[in-house]
Design brief:
The complex is a heterodimer of chains A (337) and B (322). Chain A has 337 residues and is an alpha/beta fold. Chain A contains twelve helices and 14 strands. Chain A has helices at 8-22, 58-62, 74-86, 105-112, 115-118, 148-152, 165-177, 226-239, 257-267, 282-293, 316-322, 326-334; strands at residues 3-7, 26-30, 67-69, 90-97, 128-133, 157-160, 181-187, 194-198, 210-213, 218-222, 244-248, 251-253, 270-274, 303-306. Chain A has a seven-stranded mixed beta sheet with strand order 3-2-4-5-7-6-12, with helices on both faces. Chain B has 322 residues and is of the alpha/beta class. In chain B, 43% of the residues lie in helices and 10% in strands. Chain B is built from eleven helices and seven strands. Chain B has helices at residues 5-30, 45-52, 68-73, 78-85, 119-133, 151-162, 182-185, 210-225, 254-261, 266-276, 282-305; strands at 60-62, 139-144, 167-173, 176-177, 180-181, 202-206, 231-236. In chain B, the strands form two sheets. In chain B, strands 1-2-3-7-6 form a five-stranded parallel beta sheet, sandwiched between helices. In chain B, strand 2, helix 6 and strand 3 (167-173) form a beta-alpha-beta unit. In chain B, helix 1 runs antiparallel to helix 10 (266-276), helix 1 (5-30) runs parallel beside helix 11 and helix 2 (45-52) runs parallel beside helix 8 (210-225). Chain B starts with a helix and ends in a 17-residue tail after the last helix. Classes of the chains: A alpha/beta (337), B alpha/beta (322).
C-alpha cells in the first residue's frame, strides 16, 4: 500500500481515525480535543482539535458523543476514563501537558494502575493517555517536563515514547488495542518532523526496540527526541572514525533488554541519553540492567547524558544549557575511547 | 410507597447479613485472624440496602474504604468476601485486594476504595459507558462526609451534571471523617445543599430510615434511568464502630452512641415498623436470622479452611499481557 510523508501529528491523527472506524468502543476525551463545545455557530465542528491540532477533524467524522470535550478537571476526566475503560469502553484521554498529571495523579497511581491487581485480575483498563512532553519550546518549568521515568516506575502502567511518525502511528494503534493502561508521550517539538507512513493500519509491538542506526564501536540508547540528537551525534562521530549504533527502545515499560545487551556485547561501550532529570530515571535503570547482565561486555564505564536535577528554566540561554544536545552526546561517547 | 413483601424480606435479610458479617469481622479481627485494616459498616445498613433494593446486577457501584455493606447489598458472595478479608486464595479478589479493595465486576461492584474521594471520578466513567452504549444502567457512587471535602467529588458532580450522566451520588454522612466531626470539616450543614451548585436535585434524609432511603433512591434511580441526569442524596447515619477497628472513639458522645445503637438503630426501626404494620411475621424474620447466622458461620469456616495464595500469585494480574 501507498506510503506518504506525514508529520508526527498527522500520523497520530490517522491512527486514531482508523481505530475509531474499526471499533465503536473507542472514544476520545480531554480538554479542547474538539473545542468549542456548545458554540452554536460552529454547528458541531471543532474549534481546535486539540491544543496542537492532533485530534483535528475527528469530531466531524465521529461526532461529539465520541470526541468529548471535558472541563478543565483532570482528576475528574482521567478518573472517568479509567472507569469507562473498566466498564467496556476503550477511551483515549488527552492530558494536554504531562505536568498536569500532577493534578490527577491519584486516579493513575491508585486507581487505574492498580484496579486489575487489587481485583484479582477480574478488571482490565484498556485506556490510552496521550500527553505532551519535552523541553525546547520555551514553555518553562510546568509545561516542558519529561516524566516518563515516573510512570515507568509504576506497575500496571505501560509507557510509550515514539520518535518518528512511522513509530507514532504503529505504536498508538497498538496502545489503543492493548488491554492495559498506556501512557503515550508526544514530544512538543515533533510538529515539524516528517516521515514515511503507510496508509493502512499497522501495529508495532510493545517491548521491541528499533535500531535506528547500526554501528560497531559504541551503543547509544536514546529516548524520544533524544533519538534525533543521537543520530546527529552519530553522524558527527562517524567523521571522527567512530561507528555508532543508535537504539530507540520505543517502549520503556515493557522494555527490550535483549536488543540493548546484544548491541553492548558487540560495541563494548554504552551511552544512554534521557531528557529526564538524572536521578532514578530510565537511563539509570538501563545502566543498572547492563551493569547486572552485561558487565563482562563493557570496555568502559556506562555514560549517561540527562537533563540536570533542576526544573526546566525559561530563558532561552538557560534552557539551551539545560537540555541534552548532539554535542553533549558526542562528548560523552568520545570520552569512552 | 408500598414495598412488596418479598422485597421487604430481602431488605431485612441483606441488612442482617451486613450486621452479622461486620459483627463477626470485628470478633475475628480481635482474634488476629484478619490482617491489615478494617472499617466496619454496622449501623449504616439502611443506606446501602435501601439504595440497592432499587438496582439490578447490571447497575454499577463505586464504594469506599467502608465498603463491606455496599458489597453485601449489591449481592457479592459473603464467603468470597470473608475469604478475601482473611487473605485467602479463595477470596473474591484472590487475596490481592483485602478489605479496602473488594470488587466484583459481575455484580457491577467497581471496588471498595482505599482513597477517600477515589471513587467519584470512576463513577463518572461507568456513567459515561452506560450513556455511550445507550443502556439504562445507573451508577451508585457512595462516599462519606469526609470525601465531600475532596476536589474529586466536586469535579465529578460537575462532570456528571454537564454530561447528564445516570449517577446517584450518595453521601453517607455518619457524622465523622475519621475523628473529625462533620460540623467542623464541612462548610454547610447538609452536604446535599451543595447539589444546587451543580444544578442537580439534592435531598437530605434520615439514613437510618430504610423507607426514606428506599423512596428517595427510587426517585433518583428512575430519573437517572430516564436520562434526566444525576442526583445527590445525603443520608444522615452513624457508625456503631470506630473509623477502623482499634479506634478508641474518644471523639464520640456517649449518649449519642448509645441512642444510635438502640432506638435509632436502622434494623430495629425497620423491624418494629414492618411488624407493627403486619407486613411480615416474626416467624419469617426469625427464619431469616437463622439463615443469616448460618451463612456467616459458613463464610468464616470457608475462609479459615481455605489456603493462602501461592507466592507465585504475587506476579500475576498486574497486566493483561506484558
Amino acid at each position: 500500500m501507498a506510503e506518504r510523508e506525514l508529520n508526527f501529528g498527522e500520523a497520530l491523527n490517522e491512527a486514531m481515525r482508523q481505530e475509531m472506524q474499526r471499533d465503536p468502543k473507542v472514544v476520545i476525551l480531554g480538554e479542547d480535543v474538539a473545542g468549542g463545545a456548545d458554540v452554536d455557530h460552529l454547528e458541531g465542528d471543532e474549534a481546535w482539535g486539540g491544543v496542537l491540532g492532533v485530534t483535528k477533524g475527528l469530531v466531524k467524522e465521529f461526532g461529539r458523543e465520541r470526541v468529548i470535550d471535558t472541563p478543565i478537571s483532570e482528576s475528574g476526566f482521567i478518573g472517568a476514563a479509567v472507569g469507562a475503560a473498566a466498564t467496556g469502553l476503550r477511551p483515549i484521554a488527552e492530558m494536554m501537558f504531562v505536568g498536569f498529571m500532577g493534578v490527577c495523579f491519584d486516579q493513575l497511581l491508585n486507581q487505574g494502575a492498580k484496579l486489575r491487581y487489587m481485583f484479582g485480575g477480574k478488571a482490565k483498563v484498556p485506556l490510552v493517555i496521550r500527553t505532551i512532553c519535552g523541553g525546547g519550546y520555551r514553555a518553562a518549568a510546568q509545561h516542558s517536563q519529561v516524566l516518563h521515568s515516573l510512570f515507568t516506575h509504576i506497575p500496571g502502567l505501560k509507557t510509550v515514547v515514539p520518535s518518528t511518525p512511522y513509530d507514532a502511528k504503529g505504536l498508538l494503534i497498538s496502545a489503543i488495542r492493548d488491554d492495559d493502561l498506556v501512557i503515550f508521550f508526544e514530544d512538543i517539538t515533533f510538529g515539524g518532523i516528517k516521515g514515511s507512513v503507510p496508509e493502512e493500519d499497522y501495529s508495532i509491538p510493545f517491548g521491541k526496540a528499533d535500531i535506528k542506526r547500526a554501528g560497531e564501536d559504541v551503543t547509544i540508547v536514546a529516548i524520544g527526541k533524544m533519538v534525533h540528537h543521537s543520530l546527529a551525534a552519530a553522524a558527527e562521530l562517524e567523521k571522527q572514525g567512530k561507528s555508532v549504533e543508535v537504539i530507540d527502545p520505543r517502549t520503556l515499560s515493557p522494555f527490550d533488554e535483549d536488543t540493548v545487551l546484544v548491541s553492548v556485547e558487540k560495541t563494548g561501550r554504552l551511552v544512554i541519553v534521557d531528557e529526564s532529570h538524572p536521578r532514578c530515571n530510565v537511563a539509570t535503570d538501563i545502566a543498572a540492567m547492563v551493569a547486572d547482565k552485561g558487565f563482562d561486555y563493557l570496555n568502559a564505564p556506562i555514560k549517561m547524558v540527562a537533563a540536570p536535577h533542576t526544573p526546566v528554566p525559561f530563558s532561552p540561554p538557560l534552557e539551551d544549557h539545560y537540555l541534552p544536545n548532539p554535542q553533549k552526546i558526542s562528548e560523552a561517547a568520545l570520552g569512552l575511547f | 410507597m408500598d414495598i412488596p413483601k418479598d422485597k421487604l424480606l430481602w431488605i431485612y435479610e441483606r441488612m442482617q447479613l451486613i450486621r452479622v458479617f461486620e459483627t463477626r469481622v470485628s470478633t475475628e479481627f480481635g482474634k488476629g485472624k484478619i490482617p491489615g485494616f478494617v472499617h466496619l459498616y454496622a449501623g449504616e445498613e439502611a443506606v446501602a440496602v435501601g439504595i440497592c433494593a432499587n438496582l439490578t446486577d447490571a447497575d454499577y457501584m463505586t464504594s469506599t474504604h467502608r465498603g463491606h455493606g455496599h458489597c453485601v447489598a449489591k449481592g457479592v458472595d459473603v464467603r468470597g468476601m470473608m475469604a478475601e478479608l482473611f487473605g485467602k486464595a479463595t477470596g473474591i479478589c484472590k487475596g490481592k485486594g483485602g478489605s479496602m479493595h473488594i470488587a466484583d465486576m459481575d455484580k457491577g461492584m467497581l471496588g471498595a476504595n482505599g482513597i477517600v474521594g477515589g471513587g467519584p471520578p470512576l463513577a463518572c466513567g461507568s456513567g459515561l459507558t452506560a450513556k455511550t452504549n445507550g443502556t439504562d444502567q445507573v451508577t451508585i457512587c457512595f462516599f462519606g462526609d469526609g470525601a465531600s471535602e475532596q476536589g474529586t467529588l466536586h469535579e465529578s458532580l460537575n462532570l456528571a451534571a454537564i454530561w447528564k450522566l445516570p449517577i446517584i451520588f450518595v453521601a453517607e454522612n455518619n457524622g465523622y471523617a475519621e475523628s473529625t466531626p462533620s460540623h467542623y470539616h464541612c462548610s454547610v450543614e447538609n452536604i446535599a445543599d451543595r447539589a444546587a451548585a451543580y444544578n442537580m436535585p439534592g435531598v437530605t434524609i434520615d439514613g437510618n430510615d430504610l423507607f426514606a432511603v428506599y423512596e428517595s433512591a427510587h426517585e433518583a434511580v428512575a430519573r437517572a434511568r430516564a436520562g434526566q441526569g444525576p442526583s445527590l442524596l445525603e443520608c444522615k447515619t452513624y457508625r456503631h464502630y470506630g473509623h477502623f477497628e482499634g479506634d478508641a472513639q474518644t471523639y464520640k458522645i456517649a449518649e449519642e452512641n448509645e441512642r444510635y445503637r438502640t432506638e435509632l438503630d436502622p434494623i430495629k426501626r425497620f423491624t418494629d415498623a414492618v411488624l407493627a404494620r403486619g407486613l411480615v411475621s416474626e416467624a419469617e424474620l426469625t427464619d431469616i436470622d437463622a439463615r443469616v447466622n448460618a451463612a456467616i458461620d459458613a463464610a468464616v469456616t470457608f475462609a479459615e479452611d481455605s489456603p493462602f495464595p501461592e507466592v507465585q500469585e504475587t506476579f500475576t494480574d498486574v497486566y493483561v499481557s506484558y
